[in-house]
Write a structure and sequence with these properties.
This protein is α+β, with helices and mostly antiparallel strands. Helices cover 48% and strands 16% of the residues. It has a 4-stranded antiparallel beta sheet with strand order 4-5-8-7, covered by helices on one side. Helix 3 packs parallel to helix 6. It is globular, with a radius of gyration of 17 Å.
Length: 215
């Protein structure tokens, strides 16, 4: 069963920086088109974003709840399967927009990074992306690596904020990691699976990445 949490416990609102929110909104609009996106925004009672994405303002903050409501509206409009596919593609687009904004800060666009062996690229790129997103507002991420896998643990997740779902719901994070790995590796595809989700009652939203590419 999908929907909001039924808990009566008051949870403090958490926020993303305006620039991160802008990237999410622009990416989803690119995937589903302007008119469908406007309808989606109105359906989840977020009319302030109907005419333009949040500005890239240092002082602007986007509530986690707005991002979570956008995902709920996506499921209602396109169904679970359709919404999952759209969220995956939106996540991939998020990495493209994010690379424009944060590529230099991440340190993954220079020649010295491109000359690293694949294993070093995966380690360095994963650490840089985790560090950036952990500093971006109230989301919290933790990275765990072993010989076979890279595990992303999102300990405070805006994508499924205050939701209850029967299956992992953070498809956008999966898509973003898929695209990041494709770009970092120079065109290789990696298996990325969300094995745990806070919306399902788990302690974290956990994305498990196989270190060996599929091809």
């Amino acid at each position: 069963m999908r929907g909001k949490s039924e808990s009566n416990e008051l949870v403090p609102e958490r926020f993303l920086p305006g620039l991160i929110g802008r990237i999410i909104f622009l990416s989803m609009e690119e995937i589903i088109g302007r008119e469908d996106f406007k309808g989606l925004i109105h359906s989840c009672s977020l009319p302030d974003y109907a005419h333009q994405a949040p500005p890239a303002s240092d002082g602007l903050r986007i509530p986690f709840g707005h991002i979570s409501r956008l995902h709920e509206a996506l499921e209602k409009k396109f169904g679970l399967r359709g919404a999952g596919g759209i969220a995956l593609r939106t996540g991939r687009a998020c990495f493209k927009y994010g690379l424009r904004e944060f590529g230099t800060e991440l340190g993954i666009t220079g020649l010295s990074f491109r000359l690293l062996p694949l294993s070093a690229k995966l380690k360095t790129g994963s650490e840089a992306l985790t560090s950036l997103l952990s500093r971006s507002g109230d989301q919290r991420l933790r990275l765990e690596m072993n010989e076979r896998n890279i595990c992303w643990h999102i300990e405070r997740c805006p994508l499924c904020w205050q939701r209850r779902d029967s299956s992992p719901a953070c498809h956008m994070a999966v898509g973003m990691l898929q695209e990041a790995l494709y770009w970092v590796s120079g065109g290789k595809t990696f298996n990325v699976i969300e094995t745990q989700c806070i919306a399902c009652g788990d302690a974290t939203c956990t994305m498990v990445i196989d270190r060996e590419p599929l091809e």
